[in-house]
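Standup notes
- DV: blocked on the single-chain target, sequence here:
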Amino acid sequence: MIKMLKKKITKLLNKKEGIDLEFKESKKAVNKNVYETICSFLNRKGGELLLGVSDEGKIIGVDEKSVEQIKKDITANINNPEKISPPVYLSIESIEIKGKKILYIYVPQSSQVHKCKGRIYDRNEDGDFDITDNHNLITALYIRKQSSYTENTIYPYCNLSDLRKDLIDKARRLAIIQNNNHPWKNMKELEILKSAKLFSKDYKTGKKGFTLAAILLFGKDETIISVLPHHKTDLILRRKNIDRYDDRDDVRTNLIDSYNRILTFGQKHLPDPFYLEATQRISVRDRIFREIASNILIHREYMSAFPAKIIIEKNRIYSENSNNPHGHGLINIEDFSPYPKNPVIARVFREIGYADELGSGVRNLMKYVDIYSNSVPQLIENDIFKVIINLNGGLNGGLNGGLNGGLNGGLNDKLKTILSLIKKRQGIQAKEISKILSIPERTIDRNIRRLKKLNLIERKGSKKTGGYYVKDDEKKIEK
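- DV (later): unblocked, structure below
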């Protein structure tokens, strides 16, 4: 990722400042007008901001001792409603080029109208402009946002009684888990919805009401179907019966419950090989399905009747959903700028821990698919957005596929887990396996004897320092 970012920044330095690109020196502190630029990028079509660069594109560099403080200051201010309102989530990357530090900030286009210190800024080729006192420009800005993002569509006759209070309470609890001092902690239901920008005003008609995003996130099923009769996410298992399906879940409910049903479907039908990240066991399968779920729910064009679907096949996972494309064709991760298709829905998902900051989902998908199946996911952007994940190879197809197949077909889950751990940590000792898996050492010893009898592992080294190794690793296990 660092190499890709370096390559991207090098390209940007060869361009001139424009409607979606701005340079700021910010050598030891944040330039005061940085926040005006962030505000105008949010209000226009997004943009990229480089700190440590002169107006002419020359690398000045941010003072190395000031880098962390500048990052902290920016993060604090963009989450401070007195500085940027409504607050935003932005990633700030530090990169070294020619021995000098540059801070890179990607600012997405927002579906909301943002203010900086109570003033509204917009962007054109010449820079940031304060349009606060120009009623016509502000009205045009609001209308543009509402027409570009259908999640902002107002439903003036939708009442709080048409939404599920238990879901709003659940969102509050999940947000508090992420941050014990979360602002929603002491808010009532309507206050939470207004805080999340789910209650708005239609600047064409003057009517106020709950938005489509509010209904999709927290609506009762009958409310959602009344507003969007075509709304559904089709989950399909198609391995043996390829003409129809082996299992199916037709999901026609709110996005929070939809997210959990997608995860459950993945857990039901995909193996979960043992994997350690540092010293902690994580579910690579769940990490992948988390990204698939959040992507298909956050970035869908909900006004389209095209049915969203996730299909698990013998050799791949395949998903597709209607899309409002910002480009066409296979996404090149090296030159990829994420665009939020439903920023309000995305923000709620981030608040409750169902999604991460913009752009991190693609990086996570790349990382965990590589671990799970030793492949690169394909993300194809058109009017229909597609994600294709190959399931052959890696932890899934190689080790567990082999274990579930001919050679090691008789192994139980405990033996598979121990063998998987030895494969990841060649030379590991029985006491370490016991500690990591929280299984008594005598049980580990008994299972190790079984694995040795099956000629799958061997012990090497002295009694004190030696450990266990998978025998003929590539030949035996990955066949």
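- Follow-up: Residues 398-409, 473-479 have pLDDT under 50 and may be disordered.
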